[in-house]
Amino acid sequence: MKKGTINVQTENIFPIIKKFLYSDHEIFLRELVSNAVDATQKLKALAAMGKVKDELGDLTIQVVVDKDAKTIKVIDRGVGMTADEVEKYIAQIAFSGAEEFVKKYKNKSAEERANLIGHFGLGFYSSFMVSDRVEIFTKTYKKGGQTKAVHWECDGSPEYILEETDKSDRGTEVVLHINDDSLDYLENSKIEQLLNKYCRFLPVPVQFGMKTESVKTGEKDKDGNDKYETVEVPNIINNTNPIWLRKPSELKDEDYKKFYRELYPMVFEEPLFHIHLNVDYPFKLTGILYFPKIQQNVEVRKDKIQLYSNQVFITDNVEGVVPDFLTLLHGVLDSPDIPLNVSRSYLQSDSNVKKISNHILKKVADKLAQLFKKDRAGFEKKWDDIKVFIEYGIISEEKFYEKAKNFTLLKNVDGKYFTFDEYESLIEENQTDKDKKLVYLYTTDAEKQYPYIEKAKSKGYDVLLMDGVIDSHFVNHLEQKFENARFVRVDADVISKLIQKEETAESKLKEETKEALKKLFSKFLSPEFTVVFEVMDEQEMPATITETEFMRRMRDMSMLGGGMNMMGALPDSYNFVVNENHPLIVKLNEEKDEKLKEELASRIVYSAKLMKDMLKGEELTKFVNTYVESLTK
Ligand code: ADP
Ligand code: MG
After folding, report:
1. Does the Cβ of 78 fall within 6 Å of ligand 1?
2. How many angstroms separate the alpha carbon of residue 40 from the centre of ligand 1?
3. Whose CA is nearest to atom 19 of ligand 1?
4. Which residues surround ligand 2, an ion (CB under 5 A)?
5. Mapped to the 3 state alphabet, what secondary structure does 443-483 carry?
6. What is the mean pLDDT of residues 493-507?
7. Taking a C-beta distance cutoff of 8 angstroms, is the pair 36, 62 a contact?
8. Letter string b/e over residues 91-112, b meaning 16 or more CB atoms within 10 A of that residue's CB
9. Are 488 and 479 in contact (CB under 8 A)?
10. In angstroms, what is the C-alpha Rg of the chain?
């Protein structure tokens, strides 16, 4: 037996490992199983080169929990290690890696630490986060010389022992003696959960005990039904050949859907479509991205894309790796070229990551363009579900807008879809105002704004439906992108003013009369209303309530941004627009009986409010009561 000392430069690292890595202890299992996978893959590679003479045999990796002995074992039949290799790779190299990590880690802020954890492979030494003592039993695949099996043991102090042992089988067995703070890890359910999280798609089978399965016996019962029996079968955790590594040409749509269900057993909606990524140069990247069906108003969760490095699960936080708006997608990305052992701020400035991000963006845009071109009708059917991605993409990524502007659709209140160009031609003639600006009319709520929409339609105008979650931002963005264009909601002004083709005619009402009417109406209006007068058609309503586009849009956007605004809550502000030419207004003006005059004015106010879906409570009751009375008379 030989005693050795790890060459320590900092103070003892084990207490630090235990203390600082508190929140992420569980990665020890990922590290040990990936080491077992690496050792197995090396063996296979050597065998392929003819350098291993033995039969490889069953290479399944075993994870074994013994609750009574308080141990977890990870057993592989890979290359194994000689005594020298254990000293070199475990005691020296792996240790110095861990030591370096701890040094870096100690000086970081809490936030940076949280980022580092799980992205820096602490490797083998992460096992000390959960163990009092760790043993390795290993036998190399090599023949002759010093190739006897060895036993290494370390209790977390810099001293370790190394001795010969009589293990006969090739490969490595790591035994963790779980410490009292980590007894949770001795629960089968816990280990199974961790294996499912980190090891689900590893390239070498990983077995965790046995499970029962019911299989056909081959016999039939008296009714002619198949007979079943329950049998014990190895509980294999992983799918060693996930479809993202296979050729798209070999896969059917159903395979992608099946994989989606495998990834997200809790999501019931089928994905809308998928994109299979496969890049070799200048970086390696494979993966499948799905466009999920997301319901409006439902909180969008941005942690659905899983990031893998050579099939080892790393994280489901892909911020910085893919463009922000694409984090709404689901699926997997696998790349050995994404540096995982660095902090997130570094990740975001990494040139490889930038290239990957741009590539994904381009692929997604190309796929959408292709869907649009190949099957416009099908694309339109999916539009309502994908529009939030595309709008978000357009708002947040200039590069995406450049591609998306050719397939982005605008939907009008009649449910027809138009590309930007098509829509421009549609409204060009009729909806250009006196300043030669193209006026895009839209509604944010086709039901509430129905009277205004109808008015616009009666003039032959087209009205767009902009009732999506981020449409207020989108409208703003398009207004900046489109040259000479203006977006106005249908209730932003009275119809004759919405798209003004010429200067308004002179008013026929005298100024004093207007003042008197203003006072009269104000009796029935709260302070957020401003009474204004317009010369309009007789067919128009006697009075209409409008909301200035600018103020309303500011308010919508500040509400979307979390409800608070730098200026405080923006106040509501409405115009009460009186149609000077309406016979009812003329009548009101001439009415001599004060009581009757007020009655008339209040009813004009109430009808205007009703049209804007603003008549509530006491006013609504009064209005309905007088209406019922008038019917009874
Ligand atoms: P890394 O895997 O990044 O090299 P680790 O700390 O996880 O770092 O492992 C250190 C080294 O120990 C490995 O590179 C390998 O040489 C050796 N090693 C660890 N586990 C095994 C194993 N199960 N079989 C053979 N060698 C192993
Ligand atoms: Mg490792």
Report:
1. yes
2. 11
3. 35
4. 35, 123
5. ECCCCCCHHHHHHHHHCCCCEEECCCCCHHHHHHHHHHHCC
6. 76
7. no
8. beebbebbbebbebbeeeeeeb
9. no
10. 36
Do 302 and 328 meet the contact criterion of CB atoms below 8 Å apart?
A: yes
Q: Report the distance separating Cα 616 and Cα 598, nearest Å.
A: 20
Over residues 398-424, the pLDDT tens digits come to 999 999 999 999 999 999 999 999 999
Q: Which helix (H) or strand (E) holds 37?
A: helix 27-48
Residue nearest to atom 21 of ligand 1 (CA): 35
Q: Hey, what CATH class is 243-379 in?
A: alpha beta
Q: What single DSSP character describes residue 93?
A: I
For domain 2-208, give the fold: Heat Shock Protein 90 (3.30.565)
Per-residue pLDDT of 75-87, as tens digits, reads 999 999 999 999 9
Q: Which of 124, 134, 142, 167 to mutate to test the pocket of ligand 1 (most atoms within 8 A of CB)?
A: 124
Residue 182 CA neighbour count, 13 Å, CB half: 27
> DSSP class of residue 86?
I
d(CA 605, CA 545): 9
Read off φ and ψ for residue 152, nearest 5 degrees: -120, 145
pLDDT (tens digit per residue) in 174-194: 999 999 999 999 999 999 999
Domain 511-548+568-628 of CATH type 1.20.120.790: yes
> What span, in angstroms and rounded, lies between the C-alpha atoms of 481 and 379?
24
Q: How far is the CA of 83 from the centre of ligand 2 (A)?
A: 18
Q: What pLDDT is attached to residue 609?
A: 95
Please give the single-letter amino acid code of residue 629. E
Q: Map 103-167 to HEC letters.
A: HHHHCCCHHHHHHHCCCCCCHHHHHHHCEEEEEEEEECCCCCCCCCCEEEEECCCCEEEEEECCC
Could you identify the atom of ligand 1 that is nearest to the CA of residue 98?
6
Contact 387, 468 (CB under 8 A): yes
For the chain, how long is the longest CA-to-CA vector?
A: 121
The C-alpha atoms of residue 130 and residue 22 are separated, in whole angstroms, by 10
Comparing CA positions, the residue from 269, 311, 316, 252 lying closest to residue 287 is 311
Residue ranges covered by each domain of the chain: 2-208, 243-379, 408-498, 511-548+568-628
